[in-house]
Protein 1
Amino acid sequence: MSKEEFISSGLLELYAMRISSPEETQIVEETLKQFPELKQELEDIEISLEKYARENAIEPPVSAKERLFSRVFPEETKEENKRVTGIQINKKSETPMFYKWIAAASIILLIGSIIVNYSYYEKYHDAKQELLIAEQKIEQQQKSNLAMSRDMEIVTNKYAEPVVLKGTPKAPDAMAKIFWMKNTGDVYINPTNLPQAPAGKQYQLWAIIDGTPVNGGMIVTEKGTYHIQKMKSFGKAQAFAITLEKTGGSPTPTMSEMVVIAKM
């Protein structure tokens, strides 16, 4: 939460009135440590609360006070009346109690306002989070559509010569397809039908040139979502093969881990 969002959340007001929950209190105190300049904001709020209570205090007539106390404390009022019969009430000593009543009412109204504001803030925050999630999903879908569009451009390219790599005894059901661009020598691979690579392992492409295996690059199969990938280009090749190597690749192929192979 940024400093501006924290100020507008209403937590400082709850803290100043000593009615914040333990969790909210912890949040406020941690935020005050993070932003020391907010201590002045807290002091301003405390001063404003006290000023608001004093400015809006109304001194009611003595009769109103007597009626109020007779309803709230009926038994005590009767006893008090017996004790002070004939004695005039000293308004100067009694009035502060009514300031407290008015201040309490003012604070209750302020708390209500804070709760409403906080509720709106929570709804705004939730809506913002939902919008962010929706935007992320749209972005992912756009990336997926773009990848599919690129795949189709390669597959339908008039210079693309498809080469099917079939499974070896190591992985008889495995298969991959290479698209050899006859005009440029570029190599693309579709690894869709390769088994999921185990943890710590990664597929590596090899081109067999003059009987020697040449590294064609690492194949990305992250989270099982495969797309056609551009590999290293070769002027010529007699065959292609894919082996399962440790993550990051190997300078030479592990022949016992060869999963597919094809001759040109």
Protein 2
Amino acid sequence: MSNQQSQFYLSAKKIWSTVVKEDSTHPHELKLELDLHKRLLNLFQPGYYYYYVFNIFQAEFEVVSPGVTNILGYLPEEINLPFFLEILHPDDKPYFLQFETRITEFFKALPFEKIAKYKMQYDFRLRAKNGRYVRLLHQAVQIDYDESNYYRTLDIDTDITHIKPDGIPTFSIIGLDGEPSYYNIAEANTLTQSFDLFTRRERAILKLIVENNSSKEIADQLFISPHTVNAHRKNILRKANAQTPVELVRKALQEGWV
């Protein structure tokens, strides 16, 4: 890596060092594995994706999934943090540092009992092995932590190049189980709770629409009728000021609604 890239790596590592002072002494491998799969089921994937576990203290990736080869062309063993930061699009690097700073600030101030009720998401571009840039929706949840430190996150990167081919990266903090969300966060130092445009049922349906489920598939998953699903879809399109499902999906990702 060049000196500039090395400095970028050090800047990122400095951010993460504010939430961990030591490595996990009891990683609980079995619990970590179970949590990993359960968390994956709770994260949506509107396309091809790969996942990994990020060790915050070591500032390194663990358990990189084979899906990274399908999206970026690299083998899992080729992916480490310095390389990841090296192939990050130069224009997205300032956003990356800004978003990671906001994330660490948020979790440092968060009560312990609410840690599991939040996920972070933002987008960025990585240079694939063939030289083209791929836009990824990055989602992360905490999976290994205690009252003093954050040790590991589960991260999933989904290819959304077909949905958001251009535009600046956006960042959202999404509350689960009734916790407040903060969508499309600006650079201001204070977080403002987002007005919830959709009802809880509409948000559940929107998530399934983004995952490319049909009305019948949504109805089966939510145990409601296809007629009810279609009525909700019309309301969601109206509230989103979108004319087509494709436009709805694009806006949902750009605004961080899901």
Protein 3
Amino acid sequence: MVKPARKWLFVLAPALALSLAAAPPPEGEEIELDEAEVFIEFNSTDEDFGIQFFWDGEPWKEMEVEGPDGKPVLKVRVRRNLAAQGLTEGFFESAEPPASVLSMEAFLERFPEGTYEFEGETLEGDELEGETEFTHTLPAPPANLFPPDGAVVNAMAPLVVSFDAVTQDLDGNPLVPELYEIIVETENEILRVFSLTLHGDVANPSATVPPQILDPDTEYKFEVIVQEESGNRTIAETEFSTLP
């Protein structure tokens, strides 16, 4: 009776080993990205536009962004010592050809509306996932920027910058912006920047630039960024200078 038992043990052992070898490895955990964005930046003053990608989350070693057709439009993979360290953010900004080179219609056809999916891998081998809805809705440019282009102001007094509230998109449909970003900057030996964010529903958007920001006899750029809820942004700019 002992010999048959040993024979069955010999036969079953290889079968058990084959069963264990055929078992699929456990799948990694799926982790949601903290942020995943695809948006348009349209500079109405320079008449150029581009697309931007941003994501943030757990440390990753590779990331892929797929368009609405399911095909990759962006792939990033870190190597060597950076692969051991990992990255937590990714930001990519396309070239911004002028409208004379690439029309708005051709640009929007190149990047269709729809769901853009982010798929990556963490340092531990888990899956990173995220998605965002990309739209072609763009705010209309803000009008009546003050100071206007070419103005000369007194650097010794507080400067109130202002512009008309944006109430429509580029197609004339009603729109309430998510936010306005106001920037006044110069590169006079060192970069000096004043930046302020306002809620998009303010009726008369403006901001006071403190005199500590302004220098006499200096050229400045005044920039207003209007952002709608999808993240798409429209920019308008003027340039002004201060008295000697």
